[in-house]
Amino acid sequence: MTDKRLSHLDEEGKAVMVDVGDKAVTQRSARAAGKVQMRAATLRLIREGDIKKGDVLAVARIAGIMAAKRTAELIPLCHPLPLDRIALDLQINEADSAVDIMATVESRGKTGVEMEALTAVSAAALTIYDMAKAADRGMRISDIRLLEKRGGARGDYVAKE
Hints:
Layout: E1 26-37, H1 40-48, H2 56-69, H3 71-74, E2 85-93, E3 98-109, H4 114-132, E4 140-150, E5 157-158
Antiparallel strand pairs: 1-3, 1-4, 2-3, 4-5
């Protein structure tokens, strides 16, 4: 039963920050993904650099990196973590008329970096929306998910496609 208990709730069901004080420092990593779907004309504007606010993919990459570093300020029960690496890959996906987003976060610490990777993807997606909304308010942010995590007491996780 304890393995199935929500880690951020105490015995009385109150929200708590997990105590990681006794956990070992290990190498941790996480990869998350998501996408922003849009009209083909909007995707073309992004690809050709014709969005008036500037280089959408470059700004979204920086937004994702900044958001990963500030995850503990955005998600109430997350621990502030020293991050060793944050990488965002944004790809034009003509077939789906979308921008595909992939974030990889790495750290040596006592807790995982899944939330940092997911936050990076989310912020990058919202930035794409913000920068291109004048051209297409119907864009859809979707499929934000954890792809894999490595390290920690519970071991590795790889999502099933």
